[in-house]
Design goal:
The chain has 364 residues and is α/β, with parallel strands linked by helices. 38% of the residues lie in helices and 19% in strands. The chain has three domains: 131 residues, 3-Layer(aba) Sandwich (Rossmann fold); 147 residues, Rossmann fold, CATH 3.40.50; 44 residues, no CATH class. The chain has 15 helices and eleven strands. The strands form three sheets. The protein has a five-stranded parallel beta sheet. Strands 4-3-5-6 form a four-stranded parallel beta sheet, sandwiched between helices. Helix 2 packs parallel to helix 15. It is globular. 49% of the residues are buried. The structure holds iron/sulfur cluster (SF4).
């Protein structure tokens, strides 16, 4: 198939749903498949895929929304930095409404905080050149998909000797969080629908440990409804035939080794470190930190920032939702106190957040 319409063809979708229903009859236990990526959650909601599943096939959403997993402290530090007269904080728009302990970047901007929304980290360098008397800080979050362009920006800044550009590092890696969920066993996952965008960079090989070590299959999926339905069918087929492997359904974009240049770029600038995931906690080797030779770009080496964390008890279940152990419907605030207009937790902020996607497409 070449064209987008082909991946949305209702007749083909119907045939694959039939195959899924037939396959499910060969399985006499509850199957839980986790779609890791927020964009998959949107497609599943938008095209009603969850509702088409047979009774014993459960689709749960995972931790693949970078905004949702950004810790409270990270937002608090960014807000503190934006209050300094000698600083301009720059960020992707998604982070603006993520709640910190007391406020959001959006509210701080409305109150005069120096915060600029960008589409590319390179734009932050242009701001740095334009305002040499200010310190320009880029809020560096995202998974393997976003990180290469941030690494490239830092490399460029070093080469151009831009001295007033810094990043607040919050970048994370997908395979370690999947391993964390499998090790924790809070939820019995029978298969992963792996994220297409991230896999373009890391390749199919990055998931080999899942079947080898944890004996469950995974399918790297594209983002169209046909991609997802076919990925679900492939996972069921693997389970029925006991063929526990990694399958690449998204061959039109993903290679076995991924994008080696992009991976080299990441690891030229960053080292792997433990990292905090919001609502989940510290996940070993799941984050990135600047290598020693690039530490001049680390804003926390330049400024000492202290934040007071407010103890919250707002019943937000984002941590559980990101692990797949609860659904947005289980949260007492869902659709009441917490809506996309007034998000209480991060999963309601980004359009890729599970609560936001459920609010838009799957409200009962
Ligand atoms: S509905 Fe809101 S408060 Fe509840 S888990 Fe989702 S984001 Fe958190």
């Amino acid at each position: 198939m070449k064209y987008i319409e082909e991946f949305r063809n209702p007749e083909k979708q119907r045939k694959i749903v039939e195959l899924i229903i037939e396959s499910a009859k060969f399985i006499n236990f509850k199957i839980t498949l986790m779609e890791v990526c927020g964009t998959h959650t949107i497609t599943i909601g938008k095209y009603g895929i969850r509702k088409l599943m047979p009774k014993n096939i459960h689709l749960v959403s995972g931790p693949g929304c970078p905004v949702c997993v950004t810790p409270v402290d990270y937002i608090d530090i960014a807000i503190e930095l934006s209050k300094r007269n000698d600083v301009i904080v720059t960020t992707f728009g998604d982070l603006m409404r993520v709640p910190g302990s007391f406020s959001t970047l959006e509210k701080e901007k409305a109150n005069g905080g120096k915060i600029v929304v960008l589409y590319s980290p390179f734009d932050a360098l242009n701001i740095a050149k334009k305002y040499p008397d200010k310190n320009i800080i880029f809020l560096s979050v995202g998974f393997e998909t976003t990180t290469p362009s941030i690494a490239q920006t830092i490399k460029f800044a070093k080469r151009e000797r831009i001295k007033n550009f810094y990043i607040l590092v919050g970048n994370k890696l997908i395979p370690p969080i999947l391993e964390f969920l499998l090790k924790k066993k809070e939820i019995n996952i029978n298969g992963f629908i792996c994220p297409g965008h991230v896999s373009v960079i890391i390749g199919t090989e990055a998931y080999k440990f899942i079947p080898e070590k944890y004996k469950i299959p995974c399918v790297i999926s594209g983002f169209e409804p046909l991609d997802i339905l076919y990925s679900i069918y492939l996972l069921l087929k693997c389970i029925i035939e006991n063929k526990i492997v990694v399958i690449n359904e998204y061959k039109r974009a993903v290679k076995d080794k991924g994008n080696t240049k992009a991976k080299e770029m990441i690891y030229e600038i960053f080292d792997v470190c433990d990292s905090e995931w919001r609502g989940i906690g510290i996940v070993p080797k799941s984050g990135l930190k600047l290598k020693e030779e690039f530490l001049d770009f680390d804003v926390l080496k330049k400024f000492k920032v202290e934040v007071k964390r407010k103890i919250k008890n707002n019943k937000c279940l984002c941590g559980e939702i990101l692990k797949g152990t609860k659904l947005p419907f289980d949260c007492p605030l869902f659709g009441k106190k917490c809506t996309p207009e007034n998000p209480v937790g991060p999963c309601m902020v980004s359009s890729e957040g599970t609560c936001s996607a459920y609010f838009k497409y799957e409200r009962k």
